[in-house]
Give the backbone structure.
Amino acid sequence: MAVTAHVNPDGDATGAVLSVLNYMKENHPEIHTDVYLQKPAKELTFLPGCGEIHTELLPDAAYDLFLICDCSTPDRIEPFLAAYQAAPRTLCVDHHKSNAGDFADANVILPDASSTCEILYDLMESERIGKNTAECLYTGIVHDTGVFKYSCTSRHTMEIAGDLMSRGLDTAFIIDSSFYSKTYIQNQILGRALLESVLFFDGRCIFSVIPQSVMKFYGVTGADLGGIIEQLRLTEGVEVAIFLYETDPGVYKVSLRSKNFIDVAKIAAACGGGGHARAAGFTASGRSRSIINEISAMIEQQLEEKKRQE
């Protein structure tokens, strides 16, 4: 079998596919499992099995089952789509609201779950989850809940986390190393993004843009920009945070976060992306100011709708 997740894998996507790998090795060693994924961020490389990830399809790869984790549409698993399409059986496990639940042969889509790792835990036999699998699941849950502070965190989420902790995990190491730890350069680029951020809509929204020229100056890639959107979101009085960084000339990766009532998933979906009500993103082409203006118009529409309801 084979397992993969979406492009630009985050903690939940990486934790999900590696939890499947470790669970199969721990309980079904007779079933060979290949993991396909774009190279994870360096802060996730401590996860068991990370060294077994394939970033390109193996020659003549063919599988009787292909599992997609944490992905709402099959086009987001490039360059592994061909092997998925050739598999006689396919399964998708996901928690994105934008997932229609109809592109795989079997689909387990639970939008109310905190993370795909939470769903996978429920699909696995708890008593057969070993320490390596638990470490991957816990990491995924930590990342998609913002260390258990996002609104997607439920009582069930915390019960799962507690059970996983009982496997002897070093939870402080997992949280600090994969979520909070920053290099000196990452701190510098974070400072630059905060210094040049702009408040608008009477302080209810904030945005920051990092162009390619600045990224080249600091010698960073998109993988070094994790945490910037979260720090913007924490600004006092802000409901929506917007962060853009330039991946190619005139092409931007856009991240959106909200605190209480703005549904950023709707905004991202309208722009060809996806995500959750409080965390979403998409890729856009054009001038950064034009992209922000387009987002602002949709934020304003939701603000007006909320005002009419009050």
